[in-house]
Design a protein that fits this description.
Order of helices and strands: EHEHEEHH
Structural class: alpha+beta
Largest sheet: 4 strands, mixed
Radius of gyration: 14 Å
Number of domains: 1
Strand order of the largest sheet: 2-1-3-4
Number of strands: 4
Number of helices: 4
Helix content: 25-40%
Distance between the termini: 12 Å
Length: 135
C-alpha cells in the first residue's frame, strides 16, 4: 500500500478514549488541515507502526510520521502542538524537560490509559467533515 507522505501522519490508538479525544482535539484545532490521522487498528496505521518497528497490537506508543522521521511518545505530542500553530506551539517549551522525564510520564499514562480514561468497544469514527483527514 502506498501511503502519501505529503502531510505528517499521527498514528493513535483508536480504541483508547484519551487517544481518540486527542485526535478530535487535533482535528478541531488544525485549521490548515496539516495533519492526517490513522488509527493503529486500521491498515494504514498498522503498516506505519510496523515500518517503525512497533507492534500495532501492543499500542504503547504514539507516533507522528513526518518527512521520513518518526516522532514517538512525548516528542510526538510536542510535534503535534507545534504543528497546530499559535497558541498551541508554545507547548514546544516542553522540550526543555529531559526526554527521559517526559517519556517516563508518557509511559505511566500510556500503561494506565484504559483504566483511567476508558476503552471503546469499537474504533472511534470521525464525522463526515473530519473524514478527509483520516487515513
Amino acid at each position: 500500500m502506498a501511503i502519501s507522505r505529503d502531510h505528517p501522519i499521527i498514528v493513535f490508538d483508536g480504541m483508547c478514549v484519551l487517544c481518540s479525544a486527542n485526535a478530535k482535539f487535533v482535528l478541531k484545532r488544525d485549521r490548515k488541515a496539516y495533519f492526517r490521522l490513522a488509527p493503529m487498528q486500521g491498515e494504514v496505521g498498522a503498516e506505519l507502526m510496523r515500518s517503525a518497528g512497533l507492534d500495532p497490537e501492543d499500542p504503547m506508543s504514539f507516533a507522528v510520521f513526518e518527512a521520513g522521521r518518526v516522532h514517538l511518545n512525548s516528542d510526538a505530542a510536542i510535534r503535534i502542538w507545534e504543528g497546530l500553530g499559535w497558541p498551541w506551539r508554545i507547548a514546544g517549551i516542553a522540550r526543555a524537560v529531559p526526554r527521559f522525564v517526559r517519556d517516563g510520564v508518557y509511559r505511566v499514562i500510556a500503561r494506565n490509559r484504559y483504566r483511567l480514561f476508558g476503552q471503546r468497544e469499537t474504533c472511534w469514527v470521525p464525522t463526515p467533515e473530519q473524514s478527509a483527514q483520516i487515513l
